[in-house]
Amino acid sequence: MTTTRTAPAATSALTQADAALLRLGETLKDMGYRFTTVTPATHERVNRRPENATARSLRDVLGWSRPFAPDLLPAPIVDLLRAAGAVDTSGELWRSRVRFSSYDDELFVHSAFPTDAPDSVFFGPDTYRMADAAAACASGREVFRAADIGCGTGAGAITVAKRAPGAEVFALDINETALRYARINAALAGIDRVLPRHSNLLDGVTGSFDLIVSNPPFMIDPAGRTYRDGGGRDGNELSLTIIDLAAQRLAPGGSLVLFSGCGIVDGHDVLRAAAERRLAGTDLTWTYREVDPDVYDEELDGPAYARAERIAVVLLTATRPR
Fold it and tell me: CA 140, CA 135: separation in Å to the nearest integer?
């Protein structure tokens, strides 16, 4: 059995409950646990199958968030969940309050399904896409200082730190639960150069950056939930603000990697048009492409996207000349 080792400095700020979640992650790594998180709609659809009403395996509990009998899991796993305060034992069947998902040979702790609490921390297909783009941008270039805006689990920050040895990487969020999970996930990856900070966008940090990555909320949410609503009429306000901040805070040669999304109305992408206007007065060169032209199709049934023909997820990169 291979024992996972964490960097000592990465564990210094962890509470006892955090340390229990870290040990749980290390145990899962040693067991070879892996899980790929799907979209909420797919997750609900798969769990709705009669045979999936209750958990039959560790992945069912910590990946699919299915209720489980108390004697299903090994006692050490249950003990760690209890120590972390991460299991609901109020009913005949128990439920984990966290999930663990795989990416880039790492495990990431995040919120259990369904993610309907105000401080929910997301991980899913958009995380994989954003982190892939961040990895591609960070590889083979000099990055001394980086920021992951709206870091969530810290997946973007950790991905960058792994590919930029020696870089100082800030994991920024206004959600304290996200910062907690980012701290645990950085320790689980054995990286002590990821620095979680409470920050509204870049307000909590100073100076310029060689790389800024972000996957902000970009949906139109009539309820205005912080973890979901991108702001503005089209859900794009946060994305556009991040573009403005990048224009102000990127160092020479620095790049922004922004993973976002937009409802397409009559073939028109309002995010692209607005981004073009914002970038026109800067020295940044940029690219914009659809990563997936048709996602979250269930949202098209609601009033917020009544005029949209599809919802696309997009990747914008912008670079300052040296």
Answer: 10
